[in-house]
Amino acid sequence: MATDFDDFPLYDPLVKTSTDYMSAIWQSSLATFIDTLQDYLSQNGIFVPKVTTAQRDALQNVTNGQMIYNTTTNKFQGRENNVWTNFI
Questions:
Q1: Which one of 13, 41, 52, 77 has the minimum C-beta count within 10 Å?
Q2: Buried b (16+ CB within 10 A) or exposed e, 49-62
Q3: pLDDT in tens, 50-88
C-alpha cells in the first residue's frame, strides 16, 4: 500500500488528454488514499484541532457539529446551536 502522495496526479483541464485515462488515475489514487487513511486511523485514531479560547473565538465560518480541543480549559468542545459547548 502506498503511503507517499508526492506523485498524486493533479487535474489540469489544459493537460488532460483522455477522459478514460484521467478517470483511471483518479480512481486508483483515491483508492490508495482511502486505504492509507484507514490504515493510519486504525493505528493512530483521529486528531482534533487544539486551540486556545482566543483562537477558537477568532475562527471564521464555524458550523454546528465542529469539534475542537480547547487548551485553555483542557476540554473537548463542540459547536451546537451556534455556541461552543463542553463535552461531558
A1: 13
A2: eebeeeebeeeeee
A3: 999 999 999 999 999 999 999 999 999 999 999 999 998
